[in-house]
Amino acid sequence: MTSSPDKKQLEEYFSTPRARELLEQLSVAPGDLPPHVAIIMDGNGRWAKRQGKPRLFGHKAGVVAVREAIGACVELGIDYLTIYSFSSENWSRPRDEVSGIMSLFVEVLAKEVRELNEQNVRVRIIGDLDAVPAKTRRAFEDCCASTAANTGLTLVVALNYGGRADILQAVARCVRDSAAGELDLGLGAAGAAGAGAGTGAGTGTGTIDQDAFAARLSTAGIPDPDLLIRTSGEQRLSNFLLWEAAYAELYFTDELWPDFTRESLLQAFCDYQGRSRRYGGV
Ligand code: IPE
Ligand code: IPE
Ligand code: MG
Question: Which ligand 2 atom sits closest to the C-alpha of 45?
Fold first, then answer.
C-alpha cells in the first residue's frame, strides 16, 4: 500500500458503531496495515449444524463472509488477501459435500466476477488445479483471465492446496531445473552444471537459496503473509502456507467463518498493530 485510504470513504463502508470504534483505534497510515492477510476460513459445518442444517448450507453462508473480507480489504488498500477455500485433504469429506462445494465455486464465480472487476481485484489461484473437476477449474481460470489486468487487491484463492504438497512439487522443480542446467543444487562436482550466485528472484540460472526455492512454490512472486487469521477456535495451520507463514503473526478467533464480518477483520487488524515483529532480532 502506497497511500492511506480516504477517511470519508472508510467511514461510509465501516458505518456501524462497532466498526467506527475499531476504525478509531486503527492506524491506516502506509505500512501500518498488514500488506498480506491470509485466512483459514473454518467453521462452516459447525455453523450449519447449530441451525440444524446440512453442511453445504454453512458453505453457502460462508460466501457472504468472503465478500465482506474482500470488501474490507479493498477499502483499506490491502495488497494481498489469501483465502484457504479447499485443502488437499478436504477430498476425504463425504462425496456430496465435496461436489456441493465444487458446484458452489462455479455458481459464485459466475455471479461475483463483475463485482471483482468493479473492485479492481485480481484473482490468482494457488494449489493443484489439475485435480479439480473440469467445470470448477474452468470457472477459476476464466475468473483469473477476466481479472488479470486489475491493479488493486490480489485475491489469492488456495484451491486443492496443501503446504506440504506445494513444497514437494517445488523440490521436484528444483531437481528438474538442475538436470536442465538451470539451477545449481550446490552438490559440488556431483551436482548440475549451473553456476553463479543465488538468483535472488525468478528461476533463471543460479544457486539454490531461499529465494530460488520460493520462486518454485505456487506462491511465487507473492510476498509472505503478514497476518494469518483462523476462525472457529481451532489453533492449527492445517497444512496452509507452511513455508510462507514462517514469520506471520497468528490470530485466532472463536467466531465461525459465516459470522466473520468487516468488524471482525478490523478487530484482527487492531490486534496485529499491537504486535512486535522481531524476526529473530531484538
Ligand atoms: C471450512 O469450514 C470450509 C472448508 C474446509 C471447505 P468446515 O467445513 O471445515 O467447517 P467445520 O470445521 O466442519 O465446522
Ligand atoms: C482447513 O480447515 C481447510 C480450509 C479452511 C479450506 P479444515 O476444517 O479442513 O481443517 P481441520 O481438518 O480442522 O484441521
Ligand atoms: Mg473445519
Answer: 8
* DSSP-assigned letter for residue 6: P
Burial of 70 (C-beta count, 10 Å sphere; 0-12/13-18/19+) = buried
Q: pLDDT tens digits for 92-149?
A: 999 999 999 999 999 999 999 999 999 999 999 999 999 999 999 999 999 999 999 9
Catalytic site residue 42? yes
160 lines ligand 1 (CB under 6 A): no
Tell me if the pTM is above 0.90: yes
Distance from residue 20's CA to the centre of ligand 3 (Å): 31
Burial 145-168 (b: 16+ CB within 10 A, else e): ebbeebebbbbbbbbbbbbebbee
Which member of 6, 42, 96, 184 is catalytic?
42
